[in-house]
Amino acid sequence: MFVWRRTQEHQVSVDQKVSAQTPDWTREQVRGFWDPGPKLLRSIRRYQAARKHGGPLAGLRARFWALNHLFWATITQSEIHLNCQIEGGLRLTHPTGIIIHPEARIGPNCMIFHQVTLAGAVVLGGHVDIGAGAKLLGPLTVGDHARIGANAVVTGDVREEATMVGIPAREI
Ligand SMILES: CC(C)(COP(=O)(O)OP(=O)(O)OC[C@H]1O[C@@H](n2cnc3c(N)ncnc32)[C@H](O)[C@@H]1OP(=O)(O)O)[C@@H](O)C(=O)NCCC(=O)NCCS
């Protein structure tokens, strides 16, 4: 009964609250000057937009946002490459020590806590939550609405809506 209730609660949150397809850009909103996670993300978004749209000042704009990125990357001690493919709605709640390989791809509305590493070609689906200190060693794919527990070490594919914990990570 307990397990059933927990599953239902998770299902409700999966179905009604956070989409795995449609980015919720409010999750990335900058709130105030000192907001390192959203500001780090914003520098990546603006850099990529400048590179994509071109125009006479695009090079200058891209350079400005690359410098801005360097600042927030230093503050957060995080390495999220300027060319990473990140869909909208990524939440970096405590943005310290996050390492994301340039080949990683992140789906809409994911959440990544501190000290997380996405090593190599890790592909996250939509609305994937990754707990503090987790390491995902690619190549691997994580399905929509999956949850990775704090300090888990994931070495293989994760199915949709799965919750993975431990080293090596197992599904619970
Ligand atoms: C993985 C997680 C999402 C599971 O949450 P949940 O569905 O509520 O699971 P429960 O707490 O009921 O735990 C279920 C079982 O998994 C174990 N477990 C939960 N999280 C674990 C983890 N990170 N590592 C190892 N085991 C874990 C529990 O001990 C429990 O084991 P038991 O059934 O043998 O008693 C959650 O525990 C977690 O790790 N969240 C990340 C939170 C985080 O990083 N927050 C940072 C805030 S600053």
Report what the structure shows:
With 172 residues, this protein is of the alpha/beta class. The protein folds into 2 domains: 31-76; 79-172, UDP N-Acetylglucosamine Acyltransferase, domain 1. The chain has helices at 2-17, 36-53, 58-76; strands at 79-80, 85-86, 99-100, 105-106, 111-112, 117-119, 122-124, 129-130, 135-137, 140-142, 147-148, 153-154, 163-165, 170-171. The strands form 3 sheets. A 5-stranded parallel beta sheet has the order 1-3-6-9-12, with no helix packed on it. A 5-stranded mixed beta sheet has the order 5-8-11-13-14, with no helix packed on it. A hairpin with a 4-residue loop joins β13 (163-165) and β14 (170-171). The chain is globular and about 50 Å long. The relative contact order is 0.12.
Give the tally of structural domains. Answer: 2
Name the strands of the widest sheet in spatial order. Answer: 1-3-6-9-12
Distance between the termini: 16 Å
The unique ligands bound to this protein are: coenzyme A
Rg from Cα: 17 Å
The SSE string, one letter per element, is HHHEEEEEEEEEEEEEE
Shape: globular
Largest β-sheet summary: 5 strands, parallel
Number of helices: 3
Given the helix and strand composition, which structural class is it?
Answer: alpha/beta
The CATH superfamily of the largest domain is identified as Hexapeptide repeat proteins
**Would you count the extended β strands for me?**
14
Average pLDDT value?
92
What top-tier CATH class of the largest domain fits best?
Mainly Beta
Strand portion, in percent?
15-25%
**Poorly predicted residue ranges:** 1-15
